[in-house]
Structure formats: C-alpha cells, structure tokens
C-alpha cells in the first residue's frame, strides 16, 4: 500500500495541478457568445467600446449590425465600408458572398472550420497558450506603423497575400474582397488595446474606409429563408381553370433560375455551384476520409491534445514504475538457513540488477568496520583515526579505503571491494572469507 501511494500521490498532484491550470485558463478566456465580447456599445474588459471611440475620434463612422444580413445590407448601401467580423465563427458566412467587390473585411480569430466554410485561402497552422507580442516582420503599412503588437495567438498561413506578426495577421484578396485575418482579439479589447502597438494596429485596420459596419452577434446567426411552395401531389387534382395560372412562368421564373427573380436565381445558383465544386475537389484530393479534413478533429483546441498527451505520458510512467521495484533494497529475514556464500551471491545479484552501487559499497564498508573493531577491541562506533592508530597503520591510508567517495562505475566498486579486503587481511592476518560469515 505504501509503495502504491508513493506512485499515486506525486502523479495525482501533478494531474490535479495540470487539470486545475487548464480549467482556470479556460475560464479566464473570453467566450464569443458572451454579450460583452467585443461589442461596440460598452466599455469593459472584453468589450470593444474603446476601439469604437477611437475610430469615431479618427473621423470614422461606426454602424452596429446585429445580424449578418443586416451588416451586408449596410455595407452594400454605403457604397464602400469596412466590415468588422468580431465573431466570425457565429456569422452567417454564405451572406458574405453578397458583399460588393472591393469591400474590406477584418475577421478576428476565425477557426479552421470557419475558414473551410467560407473557402478563404488561409489555414490554421497552430495556436499559442496566450497572445504573444511579436514584431510585424512585413511591409504592410498599417502593421509597420503599429510596431510590436499582441496579435499572435492563432497562427495562420495564407497561400497568397501578406503575412505579418509571424502568422498572427494575414491579408489577402479573394473574389474581389480584401480580407484581413487577425489571430487574437487582444488588440481590439478594452483591457488590452492600450498595450504595445495594439491600438494603432486595430485603428489602422478598421480606418481604411470612412465607415465601419461592426457585426455584433453572440449566438449562431442564420438568415431565415422562406421555403418554396409545396407542389401538388399526384393525389391532388387541381382545378383545370387554375392550372395555367398556378404553373405560370411568372411565379417560378424562366425555369433556369429556380424560385424568385431569374437574375437572383442565376447568381445564387452559380455561387452555390462554385462552392460545391470546390468542396468536392478538396474532398477527392484528400481521399474523402483523411483525418486532416475531419471537421470534428479540426475543431478540437490544442489544449485538448496537450492534455491527452500528458495523460498518455502519465500512464507510461505508471507502467514503468509498476514494472520495477521502487526505493532502496530493504533487509528481509530469510525463510530458511542457507549457506553464507549462496546468500551473499543472491544479495549481490539483487544489488547488480538494481544497479545499487552506493548501497553495495555501504554494505561492504560496514562489514569491514565491524570486523576491524571486533578484532581490535574497539567500540562499534569507532572512527577511522581510532582504527588506524589501533592497527598501527597510517591514518591517511585507512581513510582512503574506508571513507572514499561512492563508486561511479562497476569497476570502481570492484576496486573499492579489493582494497577493503586487503585492509582486513593486513589488520587481522586472515582473508575475509576465512573469518566469521557475517
């Protein structure tokens, strides 16, 4: 039981410390579904009211939208504006396809699944425990003017465009839109905007146009769609006089665009067709069953894999600990009387298997002192100098043998044992094996 507790208690404390750290870290991280997260209407720790005030001070009009459809409509009516996606993982991504060409988009820390859904040419390369301050390392004028900023937490890699802050900020053009992806919300938060170059970076990214449409959603945003009218079944026989009107081309369009206006139907059909084609191409290229393309695995945070790896290492350590004897060898009574040489050989083999050179040296040294003090009629706790004076030998010679450093190798242990045997022979005049078996 004691041995089990010696193994369980350290690893239990380690597991509790790591688990507690992960839980506290997760609790301290702001959630996009928190109504205060990067909202422009409040000035609090995780809100974005300070950024909105700085934009207004720069002459930029900030317009808040609570749905993706409303934000896209506001950008379209404005003619030219910057769309700020503070929570891109909750936005209705298909609505972004309706944005006019030339629109600037700034997205804060989109996940790998979100990037795949919107089909932007950027991937998540990794994530950090906390936001890291790095230098721009690029020629982007906004980043260069801002200097070091804490924008690197999620690391991105873009096939095209500009990469800054070691992957914490990527900018690229896609389908006529100019997109900037930031890897951390810190530059936009009220409690972090004043640190380093966060404020110049956030204001610079959102002040490229004179208007900013701020999408402020904190739950999955889905644009409601009106389902098409149900066509009659074969069991229903419509009125012959109303059949022509019911199936009139004006109601269904020209037959190519589906429901609604022909122009809108064609555009939407082409957009969806292109998206489906690209998705099928990616699936066939990856084999369709690749673990790398699994959205469930891609949605798991890096801390999950770190915790899983730590648990595996703990199990391996427990297996190794259970497979060998822990601690120094202990003296146990023999079950029966056996020859001294056989007992000595068994003990020696146990010491050799455990590589207990220090313990072996201690046993040999104690046995030598016991034989010498007994032969010289000295107390059992007699020191080295007393033994040397009583034996008529130089103190330094006896000290070098009895008080030498622990052996570092098997050869050192053999040499020390030989010297101890020689000392006993010089003092007693007999070989150690010829005396008392003890």
From TrEMBL:
Residues 241-253, 263-281 have a biased composition (Acidic residues). The chain crosses the membrane at residues 304-323. Residues 51-206 form the DUF4350 domain. It comes from the Bacteria. Keywords: Membrane, Signal, Transmembrane, Transmembrane helix. Residues 1-26 form the signal peptide. Residues 219-290 are annotated as: Disordered. InterPro entries: DUF4350. This is DUF4350 domain-containing protein. The lineage of its organism: Bacteria, Bacillati, Actinomycetota, Actinomycetes, Micromonosporales.
């Amino acid at each position: 039981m004691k041995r089990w507790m010696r193994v369980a208690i350290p690893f239990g404390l380690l597991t509790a410390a790591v688990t507690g750290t992960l839980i506290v870290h997760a609790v301290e991280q702001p959630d996009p579904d928190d109504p205060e997260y990067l909202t422009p209407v409040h000035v609090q720790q995780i809100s974005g009211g300070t950024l909105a005030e700085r934009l207004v001070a720069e002459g930029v009009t900030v317009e808040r939208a609570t749905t993706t459809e409303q934000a896209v409509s506001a950008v379209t009516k404005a003619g030219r504006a910057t769309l700020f996606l503070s929570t891109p993982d909750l936005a209705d991504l298909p609505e972004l396809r309706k944005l006019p060409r030339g629109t600037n988009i700034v997205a804060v820390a989109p996940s790998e699944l979100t990037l795949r859904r919107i089909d932007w040419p950027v991937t998540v390369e990794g994530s950090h425990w906390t936001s890291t301050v790095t230098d721009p390392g690029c020629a982007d004028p906004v980043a260069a003017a801002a200097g070091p900023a804490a924008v690197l937490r999620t690391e991105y890699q873009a096939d095209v465009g500009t990469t800054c802050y070691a992957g914490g900020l990527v900018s690229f053009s896609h389908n006529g839109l100019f997109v900037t992806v930031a890897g951390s919300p810190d530059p936009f938060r009220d409690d972090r905007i004043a640190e380093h170059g966060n404020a110049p970076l956030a204001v610079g990214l959102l002040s490229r146009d004179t208007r900013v449409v701020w999408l402020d959603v904190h739950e999955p945003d889905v644009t409601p769609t009106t389902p098409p009218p149900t066509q009659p079944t074969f069991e229903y026989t419509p009125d012959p006089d109303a059949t022509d009107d019911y199936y009139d081309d004006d109601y269904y369009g020209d037959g190519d665009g589906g429901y609604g206006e022909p122009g809108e139907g064609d555009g939407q059909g082409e957009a969806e067709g292109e998206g489906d084609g690209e998705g099928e191409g990616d699936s066939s290229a990856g084999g369709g069953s690749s673990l790398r393309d699994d959205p469930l695995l891609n949605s798991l945070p890096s801390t999950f894999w770190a915790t899983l790896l730590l648990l595996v290492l703990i199990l391996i350590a427990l297996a190794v600990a259970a497979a060998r004897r822990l601690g120094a060898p202990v003296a146990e009574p023999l079950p029966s009387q056996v020859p001294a040489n056989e007992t000595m050989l068994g003990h020696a083999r146990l010491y050799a298997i455990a590589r207990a050179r220090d313990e072996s040296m201690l046993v040999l040294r104690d046995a030598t002192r016991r034989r010498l003090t007994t032969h010289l009629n000295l107390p059992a706790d007699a020191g080295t100098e007393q033994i040397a004076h009583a034996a008529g030998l130089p103190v330094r010679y006896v000290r070098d043998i009895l008080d030498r450093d622990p052996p570092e190798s098997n050869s050192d242990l053999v040499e020390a044992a030989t010297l101890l045997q020689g000392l006993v022979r010089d003092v007693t005049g007999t070989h150690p094996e010829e005396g008392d078996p003890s």
